[in-house]
Amino acid sequence: MTSAQGSQLMAALRNIVGDCNVVTEPKELQVLGCDWTKIFTVDPLAAVFPGSTEEVSAVMKLCHENRVSVVPSGGRTGLAGGAVAGNKEVVISLKRMTKIEPVDRVGLTVQCEAGVTTQAVQEAASAAGLFFALDLAAKGSSHIGGNIATNAGGLKLIRYGGMREQVLGLEVVLPDGSILDMNSRLRKNNTGYDLKQLFIGCEGTLGIVTRATLRLMAKPRHVQLSCIAVRDFSDITKILTISNMQGATITAFEFFTDVAHGIVLQHAQGARTPFQQRAPFYVILEVEDAAGGVSVMEPLLEKLYEEGVCLDAVIAQNSAQFKELWSLRENITESLSAHGHVRKNDISLPIDMLDAFIRELMDEVAKAPKDIEVVLFGHIGDGNLHINYVGPRSGDKNKFQDAARKVEERIFALLPKYRGSVSAEHGIGLLKKKDLGLSRSEAEINLMRGIKDLLDPAGIMNPGKIFDRK
Ligand code: FAD
Ligand code: 2HG
Ligand code: ZN
């Protein structure tokens, strides 16, 4: 693009969204063109903040006519490089689109614009006496549009499903600027292909989500939370099996290693271990009380002690302790970033294969260079393991990434035989493009490419994410 064409494009963008909603200042663009990964080159042409679906549509149409690529951007908490603009793209940030319609208490739905934060939707539901089920530590920053585009999983998937399960309807702006209204509030609608599903988890490669209708539910029964100290990884799956067989309604089943725990204690303000003696693993278990407020947690923990799978356990006795226990899990990501250079994996396995996989994983971990700490945690009740490689901050960032990649490759190579996934919930983005073939067949990837070509023949919609065009 010549500089005259560039200036013309900027003037046209300003004309659509207003002068103050176009950013071209390089320092600001370094932030706006990046997500949480911070390891990829960032080099956007501009960033724009449309205030309505019509403005998103006009921006998209303009970019389409000029064959300028775009990167949709939400709260930029993504962990796969999906919102990174590294090739003179226009970043389209939905941060001004934050309207939430009044909650529908009969049908249990709420409609909102895509720039609303996850937490704002939780709060709107709660203020109406209802509940929005998606929950993740990034909720204060992540947007509903980003949650939809990544099909976010989070801390409560075991009970309520992921983002896909919360979406009833969507409005999407397609790469040519046309508006596709699939924003129905129907619970049941078997009228041909369910097209909205294509856009959930597409990482912004097929269109821009501008509005959604989300499913709400009655507030859950009172829940109890415990943190359980565990000797051996295999005891974690035993705890899950026993909890299932006891008929517990599990609302969260998370785990972390003592290495993760130590890093949180070091970096998260006010963090304290709830145990006198540290253990190799910890489970965060949240269960609903039975009808009539009868505690399920206490008899369950007794059973776990009896079965010898629990070294020690604490139950949160009040809301402050509840928050404190959760923060031991929720603060891991931020604490790891404070600790050193980080490379992240987000894999999933069939739950009954976890023990066998972990044994093989530990063999690989033992072979890793000594200055790479391997930190394990995640939504283990969903078979979702977060593996973080952490290197000393004093070391060279690029050398660390190369060394961690080598360990990661060996661990990824274990996945196909378990039919595991290289990305459970964070997506492929730029980070895992090379590894897509480990979890998806050639036939599946070709079909994905066909869908991409159909919806985005000009190839301007978040190009280079998930896969490259042939
Ligand atoms: P962004 O990072 O801005 O973008 C993510 C992707 O979505 C990009 O490909 C972008 O192009 C696309 N996109 C954004 N908005 C739109 C739109 N309106 N239309 C189309 N495409 C769009 N993830 C989980 O699944 N579970 C967790 O438990 C979890 N915990 C986290 C905890 C922390 C501390 C952090 C930092 C991240 C965590 N994440 C988790 C990852 C991240 O929060 C999720 O992927 C989230 O859904 C991203 O939302 P966002 O608005 O920040 O999206
Ligand atoms: C979580 O579960 C997030 O806390 C982040 O998905 C995981 O930092 C990570 O690897
Ligand atoms: Zn997670």
**Main sheet, how many strands, which sense, barrel?**
7 strands, antiparallel
* CATH third-level topology of the largest domain: Uridine Diphospho-n-acetylenolpyruvylglucosamine Reductase, domain 3
Rg (C-alpha, Å) = 23 Å
What CATH architecture of the largest domain would you give?
2-Layer Sandwich
| Mass-distribution shape | globular
In the sheet with the most strands, the strands line up as 14-11-13-12-16-17-15
Give the count of helical stretches. Answer: 18
**How many beta-strand elements?**
17
The average pLDDT score comes to: 97
First-residue to last-residue Cα separation: 23 Å
Instruction: Tell me the fraction of residues in β-strands, as a range.
Output: 15-25%
